[in-house]
Design brief:
CATH class of the largest domain: Mainly Alpha
Structural class: alpha/beta
Order of helices and strands: HHHHHHHEEEEEEEEEEEEEE
Number of domains: 2
Radius of gyration: 22 Å
Largest sheet: 5 strands, parallel
Strand order of the largest sheet: 1-4-7-10-13
Strand content: 5-15%
Length: 300
């Protein structure tokens, strides 16, 4: 088939009403992946000035104040653009329309963005606790600077906390785009809907999956390949209701070693428990438990 023939066949598919959800042509603007990635970096530059974003030269406190204010203003502009586009898109899908503007969506975006920006100081304080937890848990870390520069778990947790704050204020689509961008970069998949307590540490991180309704307490540590997932919905059954618990709970001080799998919305890992590598857990365990891992390797 010629290139013209391929193009014509694709065009026929584009105009097929049965496949309309797979394209968006000649209508309002959708959230931009590049724009969302830019928001992540603008947030990181405010949270970790000098370590993320442009360098910050030495200057008088008033000049530094104006620089920070300018960065906040720039963040708000881009954030509002992407949050609005996502709200508008979902609204048009709901109404079955393709209107180019939505005044209500713009007003709601204003509220979401302002409330999110107000959370940044508290967000920085919470991420500081995550950084300290990483340093205390990993003897290989030479300092917080190395963690900020090098640790994929810290990057993924930071993006999750940004995305979770946005989701909590009512943003749609954009928070998930954020965590999927982090997933692509780090191999760590944290749904922005998960609830994760203070001083959280992911060591190494590749292959970690934390599902949407997961609840994680404080001072929890997990290693590479850990899955906190849902049990499969039997074929033919209805999708679970939105918001229904499908993923496990980890109470305070739990440690989950590499490649362990913990599944189910009724599964609770009690406070201070340790789950061994490669363990497969679908039932609750009491506080202070030590669940052995599994291995095909026999050791003397």
């Amino acid at each position: 088939m010629s290139s013209e023939g391929v193009a014509d066949e694709l065009l026929d598919m584009y105009v097929d009403p049965a496949a309309k959800e797979m394209q968006h042509i000649g209508s309002y603007e959708l959230p931009s992946e590049a724009g969302v990635e830019n928001i992540i970096e603008m947030c990181r530059a405010l949270l970790f000035p000098g370590y993320a974003g442009p360098d910050v030269a030495g200057m008088a406190i008033e000049k530094l104040r104006e620089l920070v204010r300018q960065r906040v203003r720039e963040l708000r502009v881009e954030l509002h653009r992407q949050v609005y586009r996502a709200l508008h898109h979902k609204r048009q899908q709901q109404l079955g329309r393709a209107e180019l503007e939505c005044v209500d969506c713009s007003a709601k975006s204003d509220v979401i963005c302002d409330r999110f920006l107000e959370t940044l100081p508290a967000l920085r304080a919470k991420i500081r606790d995550d950084l300290r937890a990483a340093y205390e848990a990993d003897p290989a870390a030479t300092g917080i600077d190395e963690i900020l520069f090098c640790y994929p778990g810290t990057y993924a947790i930071t993006v999750y906390r940004i995305a979770h704050a946005l989701l909590s204020e009512g943003a749609v689509v954009v928070p998930r785009m954020m965590t999927e961008l982090a997933h692509r970069r780090t191999g760590i998949d944290i749904h922005p809907g998960a609830e994760i307590g203070a001083s959280f540490f992911i060591d190494h991180g590749t292959g970690v999956v934390i599902g949407e309704t997961t609840l994680i307490g404080e001072r929890v540590r997990i290693y590479q390949g850990v899955t906190l997932g849902a049990l499969t919905v039997p074929q033919g059954e209805a999708r679970p209701e939105a918001g229904k618990r499908r993923h496990p709970t980890l109470e305070d001080g739990v440690v989950i070693y590499a490649n362990a799998t913990i599944l189910g919305g009724e599964t609770v890992i009690g406070k201070g428990s340790v789950i061994g590598g490669n363990a497969f857990v679908t039932t609750s365990v009491p506080a202070g438990s030590k669940v052995p891992g599994s291995s095909r390797t026999q050791r003397p």
